Amino acid sequence: MRFFKRIEIMKEQQASTRTKTCKLSVEQLNQQCQCIAKNQQALREWLSQQGDEGGIYDMIVKERPNLLAKTPVFVSEKCLQKQRDIIAAIASVIAMPAYQQRVLAYAPEVANYHPKAQGVFFGYDFHLQNEEPKLIEINSNAGGALINALLVSSEQPCCERFNSGLLVIEKASETLEQAFVNMFQEEWQAERGTQILKTIAIVDENPASQYMLPEFLLFKKLFEQHALYTVICDPSELTYHDGALWHEQQRIDLVYNRLTDFALDAPTQQALLAAYLAADVVVTPHPRAHALYADKRNLEILTDEAELIALGVAEKTRELLLAGIAHTAQVKTTNAEALWATRKQLFFKPAKGYGSKAAYRGDKLTKRVFSEILSGNYVAQTLVQPSQRRVEIDHEFMEFKLDLRHYVYKAHTQLVSARLYQGQTTNFRTPGGGFAVVKIVVD
Predict the structure, then answer these.
(1) pLDDT in tens, 282-297
(2) pTM, rounded to two decimals
(3) Can you name the residues that pair with 440 across neighbouring β-strands?
(4) How many angstroms separate the CA atoms of 255 and 435, rounded?
(5) Residues spanned by CATH 3.30.1490 within the chain?
């Protein structure tokens, strides 16, 4: 019996050693690997094959030099699986009628319209603390998926001195591109059945001025490769008549919505809104998707055990949510004093905002800004410090913060990317920062 007991102890020690080694490997790679991503040359070659004469390449590499990071980021498979579990748990709650009734009570009226399309490119953003992920927000029209797919295809092997067959990249670009096209087809078929999708409009406010314009152009190329006529336009260029949405003389079947006016309230969007509510055009993502997933007030429900119990959420799911989402509370006059007292441990965000717009770290707040937050529609979230990536830039080592983004469709991750940055929030302004390929350290 003693012999078998010793065997069991040895097995436990070996398993513990393997876990520690894997964890150290991720930390070592993110601190010590200085392999430079070779994505610019591969990107130029890919675009050249698509008939680009340098326009999109120059937009990405020259006009937006901080869009693509110089190095990859390393994450353990165990950590990624925890993130997938959190995403699945959130999806299971969002599917509950009781949850939907609860959040739609404070959503804009347009969110009560229930299309069959699910919504493309949900972005689940995580910070990591000692390989323990914390979801900080969900976006309903997350940008960067196609650019990151191209980064995956252009990434080269690295870190031979670390790599003993443990490093993998999640998916090939060709698979991802086809998955994206299939996703838009699924959105169309959910609304139109066997009818053939012919035309797509990629819609954003003044798209020529948008930072992500190169991605709009890449999607246009991708759609047109699949015989889908595609336009990129401002919503003011759309008209609604004769039971259809039109761009000039072209009838639009589906709108890939990149607008950040999630309720389609603006005067320039009324033709799009009318066609959407009349079910005369398929819109994805749509206002209901934002209301159910991306309104940051929802995170208060998802991190409140009493609320979850009242909704009938199972214990195991509650445990995943409470451990895996940064605790969030709405900012109200009734809790203002407590929030101010604990502000150094908090991060303040607009409930309906996106990205880093008007977001504030609590330790940087002044009384004046806090009063503005009180009069606005804000949430306060427990500050989750991001993990770091050490990068050599111009012979000088710099520490970058990083977050991970899952691009998700129907609760399944299609692609994981990282964003490297310095400062308060992701900003694509840090030399050497930007979107980075995620390499997985196999457990």
Answers:
(1) 999 999 999 999 999 9
(2) 0.89
(3) 75, 168
(4) 26
(5) 327-382
